[in-house]
Fold:
Amino acid sequence: MAVSVDPLVVGRVIGDVVDMFVPTVTMSVYYGSRHVTNGCDIKPSTTINPPKVSINGHSDELYTLVMTDPDAPSPSEPSMREWVHWIVSDIPGGTNPTRGKEILVYMGPRPPVGIHRYILVLFQQKGPLGQVQQPASRANFSTRLFAQHLNLGLPVATVYFNAQKEPVSRRR
Structure:
């Protein structure tokens, strides 16, 4: 069941966004029919709507999902690291984020320059979180500090994909 964290180390997800952890939950993420695997390339035009996320686990367990971009506004100068795209809490195990409480509405990737990493991090909650305050800004979010503030501990699953600005099609 456990997935290797090696791609997360190579992709600098472990280090830039989260600390070393052992995956204990299986999370599958799809944009349309496209299965998101670590380091795959996904076009921003296919990410306008939230991904379909399935979380295994028992229905009496609750999870929090965070999606961030640590490469904002550009990978060479990530002065807004991390840009938070989505936060959902109180997701029952064996279900998906539509069953949880959306703390921050989904915002699809729109990388302005370079190849950006988009990371979906899943935490197991110790109990219901209740009212969680929305971040004051999407910029300069910290997944680590957010997890620390809510006593979420280390992630239980993480997957990331790459995306870059799509060329504008020329119409005649």
